[in-house]
Write a structure and sequence with these properties.
Helices cover 45% and strands 12% of the residues. It is built from 7 helices and 4 strands, in the order ααααβααβββα. A 4-stranded mixed sheet has the order 2-1-3-4, covered by helices on one side.
Length: 152
């Protein structure tokens, strides 16, 4: 990690008490800052909070919200719940895969986009649903998918 990255980590740690109760909050802030949990950041977290590194990894791998690999600046999630599946989620996904050149679970080489498939997001009346950086788009026609991703 660069010196600037270490400064960012220090700023994150300054917002929390240095104990194990801060672990999830610290990891969330690191994830938000770096788009994943760098190994060096997790080691520093263990040191600062006084918890075993194994506990940091245990928490980081238990929750789906955390990623140990770099993710894109823009996270695209396509709902594949029953309603979305029936209303064309597969076509949406095909359009995004070919337009971005990645498969679900992958990130573009330039770290701009990460494509994910998620189970039902509870917005069945708007099917098919696509989520771009936590902004929901409903009734998405496959020819609009890439335009919505690129505008965010």
């Amino acid at each position: 990690m660069t010196q600037q990255d270490m400064t960012k980590l220090g700023d994150i740690f300054d917002h929390y008490p240095a104990d194990s109760g801060s672990l999830i909050g610290v990891l969330q802030d690191i994830q938000r800052e770096f788009h994943y949990l760098p190994r060096e950041a997790m080691a520093k977290t263990a040191e600062v909070l006084g918890v075993p590194l194994s506990k940091v990894y245990s928490v980081a791998t238990f929750y789906n919200a955390f990623s140990l690999t770099p993710r894109g600046d823009t996270i695209i999630r396509v709902c594949k719940g029953t309603a979305c599946h029936i209303k064309g989620a597969d076509l949406l996904l095909d359009q995004l895969e070919s337009g971005l050149g990645i498969k679900p679970g992958e990130t573009t080489a330039d770290l701009k986009y990460t494509l994910e498939v998620v189970n039902c997001v509870g917005a069945c009346a708007m099917a098919p649903v696509m989520i771009v950086n936590n902004k929901y788009y409903g009734n998405v026609a496959c020819n609009r998918a890439l335009k919505l991703v690129k505008k965010d």
